[in-house]
Amino acid sequence: MAGAVSALFILDIKGRVLVWRDYRGDVSAIQAERFFTKLIEKEGDPQSQDPVVYDNGVTYLFIQHSNIYLMTASRQNCNAASLLSFLHRVVDVFKHYFEELEEESLRDNFVVVYELLDEMMDFGYPQYTEARILSEFIKTDAYRMEVTQRPPMAVTNAVSWRSEGINYKKNEVFLDVVESVNILVNSNGQIIRSDVVGALKMRTYLSGMPECKLGLNDRLLLEAQGRTTKGKAIDLDDIKFHQCVRLARFENDRTISFIPPDGAFDLMTYRLSTQVKPLIWVEAQIERHSRSRVEIMVKARSQFKERSTATNVEIELPVSADASNPNVRTSMGSASYAPESDAIIWKIRSFPGGKEYMLRAEFTLPSVTAEEATPERKAPIRVKFEIPYFTVSGIQVRYLKIIEKSGYQALPWVRYITTAGEYELRLI
Amino acid sequence: MSGHDSKYFSTTKKGEIPELKEELNSQYKDKRKDAVKKVIAAMTVGKDVSSLFTDVVNCMQTENLELKKLVYLYLINYAKSQPDLAILAVNTFVKDSQDPNPLIRALAVRTMGCIRVDKITEYLCDPLQRCLKDDDPYVRKTAAICVAKLFDINAELVEDRGFLDSLKDLISDNNPMVVANAVAALAEIQENSSRPIFEITGHTLSKLLTALNECTEWGQVFILDALSKYKAADAREAENIVERVTPRLQHANCAVVLSAVKMILQQMELITSTDVVRNLCKKMAPPLVTLLSAEPEIQYVALRNINLIVQRRPTILAHEIKVFFCKYNDPIYVKMEKLEIMIKLASDRNIDQVLLEFKEYATEVDVDFVRKAVRAIGRCAIKLERAAERCISVLLELIKIKVNYVVQEAIIVIKDIFRRYPNTYESIIATLCESLDTLDEPEAKASMIWIIGEYAERIDNADELLESFLESFPEEPAQVQLQLLTATVKLFLKKPTEGPQQMIQVVLNNATVETDNPDLRDRAYIYWRLLSTDPEAAKDVVLAEKPVITDDSNQLDPSLLDELLANIATLSSVYHKPPEAFVTRVKTTAQRIEEDDYPNGSEQGYSDATSQVADGAASPPTSSSSSPYTATRQSAPPAAAPAPAPQVPDLLGDLMGLDNSGAIVPADQPAAPSSPPLPVLLPASTGQGLQISAQLTRQDGQIFYSLLFENNSQIPLDGFMIQFNKNTFGLAAAGPLQVPQLQPGTSAMSLLPMVLFQNISAGPPSSLMQIAVKNNQQPVWYFNDKMAVNVLFTEDGRMERGSFLETWRSLPDSNEILKEFPGIVVSNPEATLDRLAASNMFFIAKRKHVNQDVFYFSAKIPQGVPILIELTTVIGNPGVKCAIKTPNPDMAPLFFEAVETLLKA
């Protein structure tokens, strides 16, 4: 199933080619452009179009980013998962270079874009996408030096994500444990799906080639080491590691050991599919006083321990698209009507555990309704929040050991935070 | 760090090209560089700047890497249009490929490979040879890919210059990136070559598995994809491989995860221990679920693949149905795929929750999604008998919402539910009839009419309902017309009263004289004839019990599923089509003679499939069982029978007068089979002038001994009798031999029915049959025959894929016996398969192993002994390897004979 792409295109929002790199000479830019323009014209909303399209012997895979499309064209049975991941990675690399990736920044940097495309993909095979290392030998004008560069060792090293010779005066590591809670409650008030997706986000400012070892209160690890696991250990369902982590080692004895890249990266993500109690529960009652007057009463309750506080709580309450004159009162926080999203947005800056707040909204509907009313889009109530110093899973970083041959002491800083992910309650 | 390159796109003055030309030849370095940038900018926006070729190439010799890259980029674009001038660049390329800076060496080789000009290619060989052995891994990894480029341009050159061997050496390189690229290059070359070039041996396997731990994520994908073709020798090796691959499931890159899943699934086929398999299934579930947290485009690919995986191994995600519930913000293409998987995972245990979800989706705004949700409810009803009632009540609730397209879709699926559970849920018909007026889509209309016709006797006003459609008969689409015709006939047969009688006149008239649709006319004439000749027969035909439908929609054919599973993560798995269906090669160079010679018999079936893909691409296939076409066909089985109808309406009078002789074509007499002559067993020289030829044959599930007696003697012969000695299968005559008196110089054929297991001989199995024939005039003649065991293969020898696998695994390896048939060539697999199937050797599955095709067959001999056969061959090349697995392996030699005979035929 060897498969490589024939060409890579970057197109503008109307499907016109901005930059393209031909790897195999069997798909022309005109052909691709004509097809793709037709596609986005036809679909109107390209978001609804599958990212894999076939036309006249050529398969196009594409993603959208701000006002451009990135697209590959191929005539072979390529690895679709790999190519779509690659396109997303190309976006990351360009963002690293130009901060914003959009039509304008591409035009402003087309020379570098060509250079990068040449390095990231060869003959249609993804090659190298570590932005930080790439920027060591492919530079934009401002940083360009006259001396010719050599490829950094890292490009072909087993440790392809870190260059040697990095030096910091103060060696520090910041580790953020971020858990986002996804929840879906159906109209009966039943939780039909809930999971927690956690990420260990690291920012490393370490000299040399530091060897790191991370200890978590992972039940399997603790049990393997013969330690007691009194309630403190947790089960992680599925763990995914950044490529710096030695997977075989983890498989073997569940130690997380790695040489980190420099700067920010996601060391690992994990998922917990155990039932979580909704941290913020929202109940809504709708009363129709007459054909044209509707009242909503909403109760929001925080269902976590009192010592924690949720911040930046935002509850989005969908209302009918033709609602008018909303009159909203709240017992806490502020609420505003956002007609552009047909919702009332209720913001509560600080929401301590074990509290309950109310919102009451009244609005009017047109008294005349269309005879053949199409059903309205039934949006769920959506909630956003952050709870610092708290994790749902109870995950704890037990240690982060950093060993470098120069023997410096590095300071690890750990923070915990829980946020709302896809937090949806279909209660209205 | 933002650049200002956009300024190069704008030129204000006229005469752009001459101006650029001047700048390119400037004495100032910076000015030249700016000029090249302008040229590239012009090229990017599609202006033709090829006339500047010489001037740009003159800038090539520079120390400035950036400038060099730009010139190279220009060359890649325009070398083809200026092949003669491109030679100018060769010297610099060759020089650059020896530059002390590895970046420049690699750049030179990489670019040269991209210039698809024959003249340049020749000069590429030497630098490439050097770079493949370069000290710097960055250069080697670039050179590895360059070999694939060269192969694409000129395959012969690659083989002649020994690049393949150098490439194979790189598999043992100490740098993982080099290994990964070498693997990618070799895999591509293999794909385009008919010879085995890149075969993964146990040795390379372990090398690659080691490199897997160290190379980049993309390299890991190359290696995993290449390794997934490796066939482990036994279960133990498979387990070892899987053990080395499972850590990849923890990789953050989804592509690595999917390729690892592919490889594990492939090896799992060989693993016999149920514990290990169960454990692996458990391990794969969480990573598969996590794929749904990726970007939507990747989710889409993952979902298309999960769809395949759950068809083969439903247990993996049996408990995870909730993760496929749609999120509000999922893009529509993700929602559609999730729905498909929810149907697949729906079970009695979770159906309540699933129905609640479907109901929720059915009230969303996207019409296509809503329709699919309604259809999903119907498919669950058909799939889960115990949940059917709940599904129906949800459908009724949806109908009550009175959203037009929901109602129509609901009626279509309810029709299918009626076909699945006849005479069970008619009580809801009244509710359905209330929505009659709102129906405006042909499929919904046709479905409703079908329901009315099918249950006409229980609907009091069925005639009124149908009549309401009749007025518009001529304007209705064909689908509706056909249903109306059939439904009216049903109504008439069930309620032969005055009203229906009038209706039927109208309908038949409309459907014969007034239409030019041949399908409709044919069907109408058949009904007409049936009704006028024998109304009872018409009842038997039209009201016959219909077969119950099943939900086989969106289930893939097992052999296709196999192939798709071997292609997980690739486009093939996204399209749910084999790669041959969409892979197209445009020959950019004309050197691929070899490929043309290669008889691609296995691809014949897909030769016209490309256009098919073009229509549907990755859009989910519509369910087959509920398609209107099949619905029509099933509800009126007689119409499907090809009955030639008179094309001229003048004949109508005759028809009504029952004179339908003109319309009836005598059934074709099967032409006497021109079978090959029977083998002579008793030559005339031995038999005093009597010659006997005979052979076992199988007809309609019966074994016969086909005999030919030729009397070359001078006397008439009569009183023939036959006797069979004990033989392995106890074959004996089932009755006396019927041969008339044979006059001198005449012959007689006889078909002697045979029975099995009469006089079974002890001792090792043998195909030998000893026969004695006597007559009244001559001594008893003894002769031998070799029975073709394939005549024993019974018609019920087809095995389910699943049970084939199970049987294959359940039999110990010692039961597997191998034999080579070196002389046999399979050049047209389809024809071969047909021929084998005709002899009751049934094709089960096919897979590709390297360049070989492996076919699996099952057969059965009486008393239920199954025979599992595996044939391995390179299509079009001599040599077929045959492996047979059966509970009594000592029979195997007999089967080999049989298989060999069949293949040779």
UniProtKB/TrEMBL annotation, chain A:
Keywords: Cytoplasmic vesicle, Membrane, Protein transport, Transport. InterPro entries: Adaptor_comp_med_subunit, AP2_Mu_C_sf, AP_mu_sigma_su, Clathrin_mu, Clathrin_mu_CS, Longin-like_dom_sf, MHD. It holds the Pfam family Adap_comp_sub. The keyword Cytoplasm does not apply. Its main location: membrane. SUPFAM superfamilies: Second domain of Mu2 adaptin subunit (ap50) of ap2 adaptor, SNARE-like. It is found in: Cytoplasmic vesicle, Clathrin-coated vesicle membrane. Residues 170-426 form the MHD domain. It comes from the Eukaryota. One of its GO terms (cellular component) is clathrin adaptor complex. One of its GO terms (biological process) is intracellular protein transport. PANTHER family: AP COMPLEX SUBUNIT MU (PTHR10529). Adaptor protein complex 1 (AP-1) is a heterotetramer composed of two large adaptins (gamma-type subunit and beta-type subunit), a medium adaptin (mu-type subunit) and a small adaptin (sigma-type subunit). Belongs to the adaptor complexes medium subunit family. This is MHD domain-containing protein.
TrEMBL record, chain B:
GO terms for cellular component: clathrin adaptor complex; clathrin-coated vesicle membrane; Golgi apparatus. It is found in: Cytoplasmic vesicle, Clathrin-coated vesicle membrane; Golgi apparatus, trans-Golgi network. Residues 617-638 have a biased composition (Low complexity). Residues 793-904 form the Beta-adaptin appendage C-terminal subdomain domain. Residues 601-613 have a biased composition (Polar residues). Residues 670-784 form the Clathrin adaptor alpha/beta/gamma-adaptin appendage Ig-like subdomain domain. Its main location: membrane. It is a peripheral membrane protein. Residues 596-653 are annotated as: Disordered. It comes from the Eukaryota. Gene3D superfamilies: 2.60.40.1150, Leucine-rich Repeat Variant (1.25.10.10), TATA-Binding Protein (3.30.310.10). It holds the Pfam family Alpha_adaptinC2. Keywords: Cytoplasmic vesicle, Golgi apparatus, Membrane, Protein transport, Transport. GO terms for biological process: intracellular protein transport; vesicle-mediated transport. One of its GO terms (molecular function) is clathrin binding. Adaptor protein complexes are heterotetramers composed of two large adaptins (beta-type subunit and alpha-type or delta-type or epsilon-type or gamma-type subunit), a medium adaptin (mu-type subunit) and a small adaptin (sigma-type subunit). PANTHER family: ADAPTOR COMPLEX SUBUNIT BETA FAMILY MEMBER. Subunit of clathrin-associated adaptor protein complex that plays a role in protein sorting in the late-Golgi/trans-Golgi network (TGN) and/or endosomes. The AP complexes mediate both the recruitment of clathrin to membranes and the recognition of sorting signals within the cytosolic tails of transmembrane cargo molecules. Belongs to the adaptor complexes large subunit family. This is Beta-adaptin-like protein. It comes from Acer yangbiense.
